[in-house]
Specification:
The chain has twelve helices and 14 strands. The strands form three sheets. Strands 5-6-7-8-9-10-11-12 form an eight-stranded parallel β-sheet. It has a three-stranded antiparallel β-sheet with strand order 1-2-3. Strands 4-14-13 form a three-stranded antiparallel β-sheet, with no helix packed on it. Strand 2 and strand 3 form a beta hairpin.
Length: 328
């Protein structure tokens, strides 16, 4: 076998309009792309460094450059799990190495990894945080979509969600607080879940305050995001949440993401597949976990002004794992 050569670069992709959550706003997605070459095979992976977790593009590139010099020739992907902490750098490397393995084996990734065959599923489309009027207008423009994800903060959560429901009453809603809600606002949203067609509330409280959810039940599914990174987190989360949002940039790649999804199912938790804002190359690996998902939020490419080509296949409101010429 030829040696594996690792390279990495950064890319910037303009966002259509502005992507705003309770933590801030951005107009570009800054991603890191890794290529793993062996002979004429080239595996690729993409990650989006996230400042919420102390990451930067420069830091991720430096980490990848350092670890590339220390990866063994045999079983580099397995060694990677011990050499790097979960995060964007490990994600890009892990996905690139899986892509390379699948190409060299000549079979789809999901078969190589012994996963259930991924079937197309509806993906949420995100409505960014804005005034209730602007959010309602954004929802009205896509009211034929069956599932919307609504970014909220504590001040406008109730009015924003109510306005979106009025504008698109048939849409099921995922309400994402990104750690910004008070207990009072969260409880009022939960009580309005049936009236406003809310199917899930995501990470209402900061990580260090979500213990208030322990042992309580609510009339809506409550999902961990910022509190959920790796499989071992589940033993605590299962006492607080009904579901877990698995993002490969948090788990540090597919290797940990697959294990986390399987273990969450064993705990009786629902699995949500989520993403940072990035191109189809960042979504395609996660799309291979569709067979394990209850909720899907892989809309990153749909938020960009233009996506990578060839891109992930979106059929109507569904995302598929088909990515010819892209990944896996």
């Amino acid at each position: 076998m030829d040696p594996i050569l690792i390279s990495a670069r950064t890319e910037s992709w303009p966002i259509r309009g502005e992507f705003r959550i309770s933590r801030g706003a951005k107009t570009e997605a800054h991603v890191v792309v890794v290529e793993a070459r062996s002979g004429y095979f080239i595996g690729r992976g993409e990650a989006t460094p996230y400042s919420r977790y102390g990451e930067s593009v420069e830091g991720v590139l430096a980490t990848i450059g350092d670890i590339a010099l220390r990866l063994p020739e045999e079983s580099p992907r397995r060694a990677l799990q011990k050499l790097l902490q979960p995060g964007a750098a490990r994600n890009a490397l892990d996905c690139a190495l899986w892509d390379l393995e699948a190409q060299m084996a000549g079979i789809p990734f999901w078969k190589l990894a012994c996963l259930p065959e991924p079937v197309p599923q509806v993906t949420a489309l995100t409505i960014s945080l804005d005034t209730p009027e602007a959010m309602a207008a954004a929802a009205a423009a896509v009211l034929d979509r069956p599932l919307l994800k609504v970014k909220v903060d504590d001040g406008g959560a109730l009015s924003g969600v109510e306005a979106i429901h009025a504008a698109a009453p048939d849409c099921a809603l995922i309400v994402d607080g990104n750690e910004a809600l008070s207990e009072k606002t969260f409880e009022r949203l939960a009580m309005k879940a049936r009236d406003w067609n809310i199917v899930l509330i995501e990470q209402p409280f900061p990580v260090d305050r979500d213990g208030v959810l322990a042992g309580r039940s609510f009339p809506v599914c409550v999902c961990a995001d910022e509190s959920a990174h790796v499989t071992e987190d589940l033993e605590t989360l299962v006492r607080r949440y009904d579901a877990v949002n698995i993002k490969l940039d948090k788990t540090g790649g597919l290797t940990e993401g697959m294990e986390m999804a399987r273990r969450a199912k064993q705990f009786g938790m629902k699995v949500m597949l989520g993403c940072m804002v990035g191109t189809s190359l960042g979504m395609a690996p996660a799309a291979n976990l569709l067979g394990l998902a209850d909720f899907v939020d892989l809309d990153g490419p749909l938020l960009l002004a233009n996506d990578r080509q060839p891109g992930l296949v979106y059929e109507g409101f569904n995302v598929t794992a088909r990515a010819p010429g892209l990944w896996g």
